[in-house]
Specification:
With 187 residues, the chain is α+β, with helices and mostly antiparallel strands. The chain is built from two helices and twelve strands. The radius of gyration is 21 Å and the shape is globular.
Length: 187
């Protein structure tokens, strides 16, 4: 009898370990979707983990969270009517951790697009490099906001296959990562 109880207890413990390890293989994705010109959050954007049924709609402030995302490299697609679809093909989801993706979606071009000769922030232009400013990914074709050079801490340029491997097809023309200095007041 003692032996059976141990065997049963061992099976229960093994089942608990298996269940626990299965739970540990998921993480989360969190972030926000912005309108580039006004820098305000976009409500009603759909954030999807491609190849799964995991989808979230952005809240009024543009924020979203998707839980129970299988760990590993995942493709994320963000859509909203009136804006260009944004896809990021290489987002690493770590088990028991949260990955963060912040995106500024570009408005859809007009039916008869005009070439833009000015560099006004938020204006859609011909496809160019992907800009990432302080962790916020600007959709391809969005002119980055004007930044005071005195506030720039670092600029990193990533091109070719390295850019594509890190950020997917959205970065086929390269990536420019800009990190600004944080002000004493947290800005």
């Amino acid at each position: 009898m003692f032996r059976r109880i141990l065997a049963a207890g061992g099976s229960a413990a093994a089942s608990m370990l298996i269940a626990g390890s299965a739970l540990a293989q998921v993480g989360a994705l969190s972030g926000a979707v912005y309108e580039p010109a006004s820098k305000t959050g976009l409500a009603g954007a759909e954030v999807q983990i491609v190849g799964t049924k995991l989808v979230a709609m952005t809240a009024a402030d543009g924020s979203y969270t998707i839980t129970d995302v299988p760990a590993g490299m995942r493709k994320v697609r963000i859509t909203r009517p009136g804006y260009l679809t944004f896809s990021l093909s290489e987002v690493r989801i770590e088990a028991l951790d949260t990955a963060h993706v912040y995106v500024a979606l570009a408005p859809e071009p007009a039916a008869h697009p005009h070439h833009v000769s000015t560099a006004e922030p938020g204006v859609v232009r011909e496809p160019g490099p992907m800009y990432i400013i302080d962790g916020v990914i600007l959709a391809s074709g969005v002119v980055p906001p004007k930044i005071d050079p005195k506030t720039i801490e670092s600029v990193e340029v990533i091109g070719g296959d390295a850019a594509r491997k890190m950020y997917g097809e959205s970065a086929v023309t390269g990536v420019i990562m800009i990190t600004t200095r944080k002000m004493p007041d947290g800005r």
